[in-house]
Structures are given as C-alpha cells and as structure tokens.
Amino acid sequence: MSVSVDAKAGAPQVLAGRLHDPAYRGFASDNYAGAHPEIIEAVQAANEGHVTAYGEDVYSAALQEVIRSHFGTTATAYPVFNGTGANVLALQALLPRWGAVICAATAHINTDENGAPERIGGIKLLPIPTPDGKLTPELIDAEAWGWGDEHRAQPLAVSITQPTELGTCYTPEEIQRIAEHVHAKGMKLHLDGARLANAAAHLGVPLQAFTTDVGVDVLSFGGTKNGLLFGEAVIWLNPQSDPGMSYLRKMNMQLASKMRFVSAQMAALLTDGLWLRSASHANEMAQRLSEGISAINGVSLTQATQSNGVFAVLPPGAAAKVRESFRFYDWDQARGEVRWMCSWDTTETDVQSLLAAVEAAVGSPASQPSDSEKAFDR
Hints:
This protein has helices spanning 37-46, 58-71, 83-94, 108-111, 116-119, 137-140, 172-184, 196-203, 245-251, 260-269, 274-294, 318-322, 348-362, 371-377, and strands at residues 2-5, 12-16, 76-80, 99-104, 124-128, 154-161, 188-193, 218-222, 232-236, 300-301, 309-313, 329-332, 337-341. By secondary structure, it is of the alpha/beta class. It has a seven-stranded mixed beta sheet, sandwiched between helices. A four-stranded antiparallel beta sheet has the order 10-11-13-12. A two-stranded antiparallel sheet has the order 1-2. Strand 6 (154-161), helix 7 (172-184) and strand 7 (188-193) form a beta-alpha-beta unit. Helix 1 (37-46) runs antiparallel to helix 10 and helix 11 (274-294) packs parallel to helix 13. The protein starts with a strand and ends with a helix. This is Low specificity L-threonine aldolase. InterPro entries: ArAA_b-elim_lyase/Thr_aldolase, PyrdxlP-dep_Trfase, PyrdxlP-dep_Trfase_major, PyrdxlP-dep_Trfase_small.
C-alpha cells in the first residue's frame, strides 16, 4: 500500500492496496475471518442495476423460499444487520412490556450485548448459572415463578443459545424437553443461533430438526460468523405468535434499505450446502486443535469441543507468550481459561502453528492424551 499526504489538508490518503496484512491469522473470533468467495459473488450479482428497496425485491423474496426449505413451510425470515439487533428484536417481539427472559448466565444477551436487551428492548433478564452453558427444565424453574405478582417482572420467555457460549450443543431431545416445559407454563422459547450451522454440523441433523420440529418459537439465525460480510435474520417459526415483526424491525433500526445485499448473502449461504461445508470445516479445525491441546502437558480442556470453539486453561504467563503470535480472548482470567475460535477459512497450518506456540509457551513437550481425556474429547 502507498500513502500520500494532502499538502493542503494534511490528511493521509490511501492510493492503492489494502490496509491490513492478509497473511495475519487469529483465533479470537470467527468474526475475524473474511467473507467467503461465494458470498462475495452473490453480492456482486445483486449489485447490478436498480432494485426495489426495503425488502420488496426478488432476492428477499427468494430468501423466504430458501428459509422455508430449511425450517418448514410456516417459517418467515426478517433479515437484520447484526446479532445483537436480531436478539433484541426477537425477544421484544415475544414479550409484553412487563415480560422477563430466563437465560443462562453465560448467554450472549447477558454478557456481551452491553445491556441492549434491557436498555433498548426494555426486557428484564433472569440469568441462571450453568456448568456447561446449557439450561434444563430444572434450572429454568429456579426463575420460572411469580406470575401474577405485580412486584416481579413476569418470566414469559426462555432464551437458549445453540451452540452455547461455551461451545457445547443441545441435542434435539434436550431442546424439545425445554420447549414442552416452558410452553406448559405459558412461556415462549427463543433460540440464539449465531452459530446454528456449527451445531447442525456437530449433530448431523437438518436445521429444522432442532428448531421448528422441537418447538422453538423464534430464532436468531447467524450468518456473519459463517462467511457473510454482514447480516443475520430473525426467523419466526410459529406464525400464530408473530406480533408484527415488520413494524418492530423498523422501530428497532434493523430495516435495511438495500436489503437485497443481506438477502442475497443469506440465500447463497443456505443454497448448495455452503452453510454446512463452512461450519463443518470450522468444527473440524477446532477438533484438531482440541486434540492437539489435550496432548500438551500443563494444558487442560475445560469444555467438550462440540462446535468451533476450544476452551482451555493455560499455566500462569503462558497466554501472554502465545499472544505474541496469535490474538485470542481470555474467558476466565482468574483461572487462566482462554477461548480459541476456528473459522470457515482456518487451515491445518494455522492450527499447527497455534499448537506450536502453546507448546513453546508452556515449555513442556506434547504427550499422549490419557484415556479420560480421549473420552472427554468425544
């Protein structure tokens, strides 16, 4: 890249090239990865000529058909800009002003959205600690009470994350059990599916099998973490409970004027298996990383690797040394727990390089994993 300085304004101006090093690799988030080439092609195809705005376009219409092929004939998709917007919009649509949402304490809506569900959506969150990020009917009942008490925000919905923030996955049977439990109490079920494709890849079942078919009412479907430039969708699975999503989306500043660019990306992702290929690859790289990490003395996995995230505890000072080569996040700094995320474009070379950096930082040669570690990894 070359840069010049405007003599009059004194401002640097980029003349050619890129501003980043394309050889840089990281494990901090699957958001770091670029867009898949097939997604770029879809955007380019949608970019020619003039197309009707605000979702009244052929790409957004085509997306509805694609969504129904994956989630059932009653599903309706509402493309939005980002995951936080999708979650706030979905939860706000589920609840009256006095409603509350039960969620895991580790849920993204509770820990990583800067209070947006509560500040913007006006929704009280009722978080519950869990060992693996997963809720159960028994855990839900810790906060599912107080209906009719005007002094308590009314627990009228449950939000689960699939995969969870700890990378673990609910089985279809577990979600169905939750859905039946909360519906029996007059509550609704929201699913935060920022990495839903990774869960499907792990479970080996269609998307509909652990959403529509098991009683989920509404879900936030993620695309950015699986190769999109930007864009998510709120997918309403139960049309009888749709309270007016078109109006709420506009009110929540999530209505894209040039919606065709979100719709075209998502349609391309969900056509010809791109969503599953990309997610399966990310999961596979995470599994390779998990197996390699478990073989390094002094490093221990903290969660089963069931999607594209690996959680491990490093010895004191080791994380800082590894960060000299790779960026990643602390998960629980007090105990030395870190998180590594793999992406649709993570390579085996990337994984091997990270493993080498961890081994060098720990200062201990790799060993064969014990039988218990092997069992855990499965």
